[in-house]
Task: inverse folding
């Protein structure tokens, strides 16, 4: 059996908004990028069964603009977590295909650590806003997930789509 992870960094956020970082919304470019990424995911058949996300406003807005109506879990502990914290939360999931939304630097490190071989894309290691990696794991249950076992299915960034 195969489990699929869609690992996405939130879309571009607005820096001109006063208030805590956790509450920063998306800017116009981020809103457009999230919609484009949602369309790309659907066009390629990468439709999640569930979403696991940071509780930050920008990750929630990114998810909303992707346009998926699936069960979702927004966790404060996924706001700027380590890759170990992300792994721990992902191991609690049961869906076959999980979309995980997060932040850098953790999301980039998590993507790199999960894969057996990284994609040949010049933006993978930077993991810019709304970067998305689709990866498969030959496991029956997320509790069996180990670093270095993922196979890249696809990787893209908003600039590739516009």
Result:
């Amino acid at each position: 059996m195969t489990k699929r992870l869609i690992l996405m960094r939130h879309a571009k956020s607005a820096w001109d908004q006063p208030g805590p970082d956790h509450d920063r919304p998306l800017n116009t470019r981020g809103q457009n990028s999230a919609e484009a990424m949602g369309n790309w995911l659907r066009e390629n058949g990468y439709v999640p069964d569930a979403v696991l996300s940071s509780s930050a406003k920008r990750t929630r807005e990114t998810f909303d603009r992707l346009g998926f109506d699936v069960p979702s879990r927004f966790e404060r502990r996924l706001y700027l977590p380590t890759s170990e914290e992300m792994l721990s939360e992902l191991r609690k999931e049961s869906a076959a295909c999980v979309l995980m939304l997060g932040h850098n630097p953790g999301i980039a490190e998590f993507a790199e650590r999960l894969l057996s071989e990284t994609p040949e894309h010049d933006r993978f290691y930077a993991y810019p806003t709304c970067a998305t990696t689709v990866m498969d794991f030959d496991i029956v249950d997320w509790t069996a997930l180990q670093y270095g076992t993922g196979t890249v299915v696809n990787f893209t960034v908003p600039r590739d789509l516009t």
Notes: The beta strands are 3-9, 50-54, 72-75, 97-102, 132-137, 151-156. The chain has a mean pLDDT of 96.
